[in-house]
Design brief:
Elements lengths: L1 H5 L23 H15 L22 H4 L6 H5 L7 H14 L3 H4 L13 E8 L25 E3 L7 E3 L14 E2 L9 E2 L5 E3 L16 H4 L30 E11 L4 E8 L4 E7 L1 E6 L2 E6 L6 E5 L7 E5 L3 E5 L7 E14 L5 E8 L11 E9 L20 E8 L3 E6 L8 E5 L8 E3 L10 H4 L1 H8 L3 H25 L21 H11 L22
Parallel strand pairs: 6-21
Antiparallel strand pairs: 1-7, 2-3, 4-5, 7-8, 8-9, 9-12, 10-11, 11-14, 12-13, 13-15, 14-15, 15-16, 16-17, 17-18, 18-19, 19-20
Length: 553
């Protein structure tokens, strides 16, 4: 096949728009990759939506991780599990804010990268067993984390919208990390040693997991990940991460199970569901992005099916509440320099509905526009306010300045890469308290079943041959294996078309128009199986009552 021989990007004839191909120039060093990226950027100028165009990149520009595994929102599952800990609705909103700020920690601690494109019907599942957060005696202090934390980094002061100094850092995003290949060790033992930044995964069993899976896929040192596009995180690579401590080591762990499936290929859409039964929590949503190159920036927005994240509380104390979390707009900067970093703009809105009758809470996170001059500030400001669910006037409040002052309960500001602080507006004499310090947090690795237990359509099993070749830096062979997978998808599509059949997702109902996907019977079974996977630690009993934090704030 000509395409295989030339190792060019494959073109999907089913996709809309004109095909765009980027040939592999054979130079797989950093300069060669940068040249291919520049060539791709030039060809993408003027394209309305890159996510929908007919393109598949050479394997040499990909990182050895499946897309479905990479795109998940549980980088800090301990903060997700803490959402329903308090009997106070205000404190539950604070907990949802902490989860929201931590859900994309990978973009702070890790790197901007291009995973494999998902194929139709591909799915991924995993789980986390985390030590629950605990709460300090000072009610204004944030929860105490017991795993994957490090000392806070330095901060600098800047002006705040609320007229007082805000604290946030100004990381040097112009240079790759100085500690990319540093070893990061567990504070508990040498069982959980990871290298580099991407502490996203660990094997379910250490004896039977092949070298192409779990930890090697996600460690920069072992996988030989490109140093192009590393966001700067000078401290993270050299820090000793605390996996547990003496006081928390004997606590039962909380398990969170995760399942996602590619439900559409054009446009590329996936559905996901996470469950934490012992804390009465569920997380669901639809992932789809729209992307466009503007100058030297890639602007990424939610696609039409992507309505955001939905956190549902299924048991006391917040039983019946649903938190709808919208996505902001992100930009990948520095495309022509090969030193990529992410900035965030516009707003995220969190709306609580359901639960007890009466007024509800809503939060607006406003990401401040970056200046064209100087370093990126990564600044944000926001409010928590009340609204009447019987009215809809609050839907017009899309910025902090839109909210009537009498509706505001609390304000917060800071940096989405560092420290965020908050304060009640009815407590003028009190100091700002820390809501969350992201500089101390690292991505908690997921636990994935070994390859021999996975189905052929599970992400790691499906892409095993490509991953093996990428890890060995055999890029031409990786491209060949990648094209075989993509060609099979096209053949399957043609066969369904010939027979007059429509693709039906296995784990999610086909109707995803609401943005809140529903599990099929097989989907429920897959979640239950993941929840029953063997555990290294004692797990919380989902049927036992949990201690509830009484109101403190």
């Amino acid at each position: 096949m000509t395409t295989l021989d030339k190792h060019e990007a494959s073109v999907d004839e089913e996709a809309p728009g004109q095909p765009i191909s980027v040939p592999d120039n054979g130079d797989h060093g950093e300069s060669g990759k940068l040249k291919m990226i520049v060539q791709l950027v030039k060809k993408c100028l003027g394209v309305k939506d890159i996510a929908a165009m007919r393109l598949s990149l050479p394997a040499s520009l990909l990182e050895p991780i499946p897309n479905l595994e990479y795109w998940q929102y549980l980088d800090r599952p301990d903060l997700f599990a803490a959402i329903n800990d308090s009997d106070d609705p205000f404190e539950r909103m604070l907990a949802v804010l902490r989860f929201t700020f931590s859900k994309d920690l990978k973009f702070i601690r890790g790197k901007v990268c291009k995973p494999y494109n998902s194929v139709l019907g591909e799915h991924f599942r995993s789980h986390w067993d985390v030590i629950p957060v605990s709460y300090p005696s000072d009610p204004n202090e944030p929860p105490i984390h017991h795993l994957y934390v490090s000392p806070p980094t330095a901060e600098v002061a800047s002006a705040s919208w609320f007229g007082t100094p805000a604290m946030h850092s100004m990381p040097d995003v112009a240079h790759p990390s100085l500690s990319e290949n540093a070893s990061v060790k567990s504070g508990k033992s040498n069982k959980s040693t990871f290298s580099g930044f991407s502490f996203m995964s660990r094997p379910a069993t250490t004896k039977s997991t092949p070298a192409t899976s779990p930890e090697l896929i996600e460690t920069n040192l072992e996988a030989g990940m490109s140093s192009l596009s590393l966001a700067n995180d000078r401290a993270s690579g050299a820090a000793d991460l605390l996996e547990t401590d003496e006081n928390a080591a004997d606590k039962p762990r909380v398990r969170i199970a995760f399942l996602t499936e590619q439900v559409s290929h054009h446009p590329p859409v996936s559905a996901f569901h996470a469950a934490c039964p012992s804390r009465h929590l569920e997380l669901a949503g639809v992932d789809q992005i729209s992307a466009k190159v503007s100058g030297t920036t890639l602007r990424v927005m939610p696609g039409s099916f992507n309505k955001g994240l939905f956190v549902r509380i299924t048991g006391p104390p917040g039983e019946g509440e649903t938190y709808h979390i919208t996505h902001p707009v992100a930009s990948v900067n520095g495309l022509l320099r090969g030193s990529f970093y992410v900035t965030v703009g516009e707003t995220t809105i969190i709306t609580c509905s359901g639960g007890a009758d009466g007024q509800k809470l809503r939060a607006i996170i406003e990401y401040k526009e970056e200046s064209w001059l100087g370093r990126a500030q990564f600044a944000l400001e926001g409010v928590i306010h009340t609204y009447d669910p019987k009215e809809n006037v609050h839907e017009e409040w899309t910025r902090v300045k839109h909210v009537p002052r009498e509706r505001i309960l609390a304000v917060f500001d800071g940096s989405w890469r560092q420290r965020i602080r908050w304060k009640r507006v009815d407590a003028q004499d009190t100091e700002y308290a820390t809501l969350l310090d992201l500089s101390t947090l690292h991505v908690v690795p997921k636990i994935v079943r070994p390859l021999e237990k996975q189905l052929p359509t599970e992400s790691r099993k499906l892409w095993e041959s490509v991953t093996t070749k990428l890890l060995a830096k055999e890029y031409s062979e990786a491209t060949k294996h990648k094209l075989v997978i993509e060609q099979k998808q096209r053949d399957d599509t043609a066969e369904r078309k010939r027979k007059g059949l429509q693709f039906v997702p296995r784990y999610f109902n086909p109707d995803i128009s609401s943005g809140l996907p529903m599990l099929t019977e097989e989907g429920h079974n897959a979640i239950e199986e993941e929840l029953k996977e063997p555990a290294e630690y004692t797990l919380e009993d989902a049927s036992a009552p949990k201690p509830v934090e009484s109101s403190k704030a």
